Amino acid sequence: MFGTEVEVSRKIQLRREIVFVILSGIFLGTLAILNILGISRQIDLSFNIGSLRIPFVVFVGVLPYPITFLCTDFISELYGKRRANMVVWTGLGLNIWVLFILWLGGVLPPHTDLVNGLPDIYHPDRTFYQVRKWTSMATLASMIAYLTAQLVDVQVFHLLKRLTRGKALWLRNNGSTLTSQMVDSLAVILITYSFTNAISIQPGETVAHGLVILILSMSTVCVHILEDI
């Protein structure tokens, strides 16, 4: 009898650990994707309502980003705050690893003459250096925003859990994700623009207007994903 109960308990624990590995894998895999894609393409999804033009512009790397917050929410709910924070710090380490590989790939021979971080347009290594230029500085800028937003997500999730006494899971998930997404959008856009010159402002558009559009567009992506989920 007791042996059967122990066996069942072990199976349940194994399944819990499998779910944790899957959630962590999705979280870290998504981070790797968005770090490489990052700001490589600016997607213009602007649309018209009657005669009114509604600007909606996002970077391609933003599209999978809200999934990372949902993963940390599920990990927080199922495994607690400590494990969620551990995954967040692991993600930060992943960012550093990406930067290291990009740096290492650039310093190994053969050495290439670079102008503004890029070789001649017909050079066979042009693609690598273009990706490195897009990724390195943007990743450095986003690391601060990423860490801040993910920690805010975990803290807000557990704050709402205490306030709702463990009820209203939808409120904890949506509230913490929306808050952290806004923090991330604000931080990554301002830091990227201020320190990397990676964001181009359209001709005739003010800096403030262009940045506000990007921040609101990035946050709106998260809202629509949450509604679909």
Task: Describe the structure in brief.
The chain has 229 residues and is mostly helical. Helix content is 72%, strand content 5%.
What does this structure look like?
This protein has 229 residues and is mainly alpha-helical. The chain has one domain (2-228). It has helices spanning 2-37, 66-79, 81-107, 126-163, 169-196, 207-228, and strands at 42-44, 47-49, 52-54, 57-59. Strand 2 and strand 3 form a beta hairpin. The longest helix has 38 residues, at 126-163.
Topology:
Blueprint: H1 2-37, E1 42-44, E2 47-49, E3 52-54, E4 57-59, H2 66-79, H3 81-107, H4 126-163, H5 169-196, H6 207-228
Antiparallel strand pairs: 1-4, 2-3
Helix pairs in contact: 1-2, 1-3, 2-3, 2-4, 2-5, 3-4, 4-5, 5-6
CA(first)-CA(last) distance: 41 Å
Oligomer: single chain
Mean pLDDT: 77
- One letter per element, helices H and strands E, the order comes to HEEEEHHHHH
| Form type | flat
Query: Please, how many helices?
Result: 6
Helical content stands at over 70%
In terms of DSSP E residues, the strand content is 5-15%
The main sheet orders its strands as 1-4
Main sheet overview? 2 strands, antiparallel
Radius of gyration from CA coordinates: 21 Å
Structural class: mainly alpha
Please report the total strand number as a whole number.
4
Low-pLDDT sequence parts: none
Number of domains: 1
What keywords describe this structure?
229 residues; mainly alpha; two-stranded antiparallel sheet; 6 helices; 72% helix
